[in-house]
Design goal:
alpha/beta; Rossmann fold; 7 strands; globular
Length: about 260
């Protein structure tokens, strides 16, 4: 377990991810070369990023980040998110996954207008509003934040929990693996306590130290487990996703 002092992230994306979100801007189809004098920016990464086909597609279709297509691909393969559903988006900023869910719950697939369902997004950092999405800023481990969520749910169980949470990485493998695992464990516990018997959790994980233990955790807590690597997830990235469908009974709380 990682102490809160070393967990500046809790429910948010990493500083790296948040900084990169500033570069999701419209661009032409031709390959662009980025010019910057900043020594803090990896120019090779940034050149690849702005010329990424998913970045361009996100700009054209109005998504805040290319990550929307990761969720889209997984959802289209498994048919998890349906009209009328209650969906909770953990670590939601900058909001691309909430945008996708919002369109999926719209009768016309639109980004605005009528919405058939409920979307609650949560993050420790601010998120620009998404029409129809109820946003809670805070850490759901805190009693007042959890109480606010319960109020929004109004006694309803959740159909799908999606989690694109990622920690600030230190470069120290053991510490980073512990931070990643802790976030996944939080998402699993949350889902198993709030999701319907036939509901699902989609969460980001990383191949490497700790992955086998997380896979084992999913198999213990869900009836069906599917590892997925969407095409929109970069080949060079160790990022992958675990999908758990049909949560088993929540783990018993420790006595005393």
């Amino acid at each position: 377990m990682v102490g809160f002092g070393s967990m500046r992230f809790a429910l948010g994306h990493s500083q790296l991810n948040r900084r990169h979100s500033a570069y999701y801007l419209p661009c032409n189809e031709r390959r662009m070369k980025v010019k910057t004098k900043s020594k803090k920016v990896n120019k090779a990464w940034l050149n690849d990023h702005v010329n990424d086909p998913y970045v361009k597609l996100a700009a054209r279709e109005g998504y805040r980040a290319r990550a929307a297509y990761k969720l889209k691909e997984m959802d289209e393969a498994l048919h998890l998110i349906k009209p009328g559903h209650v969906v909770v988006d953990l670590g939601s900023a900058p909001g691309a996954w909430s945008q996708y869910v919002r369109r999926k719950l719209s009768p016309a697939g639109a980004a605005v207008g009528e919405l058939n369902g409920t979307i609650i997004a949560m993050d420790i950092i601010p998120m620009e509003p998404v029409e129809g999405v109820q946003f809670l800023q805070g850490d759901f481990r805190e009693p007042e934040v959890l109480a606010a969520l319960e109020k929004l749910l109004a006694g309803r169980k959740v159909d799908v929990v999606v989690s694109d949470m990622a920690p600030n990485l230190s470069g120290i493998a053991a510490a980073d693996a512990a931070r990643i695992s802790h976030l996944v464990e939080l998402a699993v516990d949350f889902a198993c306590n709030h999701v319907k018997p036939e509901g699902a959790l989609i969460t980001k994980v990383f191949h490497g130290s700790g992955y086998s233990q997380l896979s084992k955790l999913f198999k213990e807590r869900f009836r069906v487990v599917k590892p997925m690597k969407p095409k929109a997830s970069r080949d060079k990235s160790s990022e992958t996703f675990l999908v758990g469908i049909g949560p088993k009974m929540p783990a018993p709380q420790d006595a005393g």
